[in-house]
Amino acid sequence: MVKDKITLTNETGLHARPASELAKLAATFKSTIKLYVNGKTIDAKSILAIMSAGIKYNTEIEIECDGEDEEKALSEIKKGFENNFGE
Questions:
Q1: How many domains, the chain?
Q2: What CA–CA distance (Å, rounded) separates 10 from 81?
Q3: Which pTM was predicted?
Q4: How many Cβ atoms are within 10 Å of 59's Cβ, its own excluded?
Q5: pLDDT for position 86
Q6: Using CB atoms within 10 A as the burial measure, which of 3, 32, 38, 87 is most buried?
Q7: Averaged pLDDT of the chain
């Protein structure tokens, strides 16, 4: 299991498009990928779970990946957040 924290820098938060991109990216990995935000545990492979969390700009998010490709999953998910999922 690997973990890291990031701060959401997308000024519009994780609305539908970036939430969709995150879920699609997470689904490409075999590992379990969870986000911990404001006391909630979110399945990163579920767009509905991500959107229902209402993650806003400047929120700290802990990313946890657990499985056979956990290192690559964590690295790629972090890159996605750093690039604001293409926004």
A1: 1
A2: 8
A3: 0.94
A4: 17
A5: 81
A6: 32
A7: 95
Tokens of 82: 């750093």
Of 2-6, 13-17, 47-51, 83-87, give the lowest mean pLDDT range: 83-87
Residue appearing with tokens 């956990």: 70
Structure tokens belonging to residue 7: 């701060």
- CA angle at residue 13 from 9 to 14, to 5 degrees? 110
Q: What digits encode the pLDDT tens for the residues 46-87?
A: 999 999 999 999 999 999 999 999 999 999 999 999 999 887
What are the residue numbers of the active site?
15
Range of the domain at 68: 2-86
Rounded CA separation 39/71 (Å): 24
Residue 66: is it exposed, middle or buried by C-beta count within 10 angstroms (0-12/13-18/19+)?
A: middle
CATH code for position 21: 3.30.1340.10
Map residue 26 onto helix, strand or coil: helix
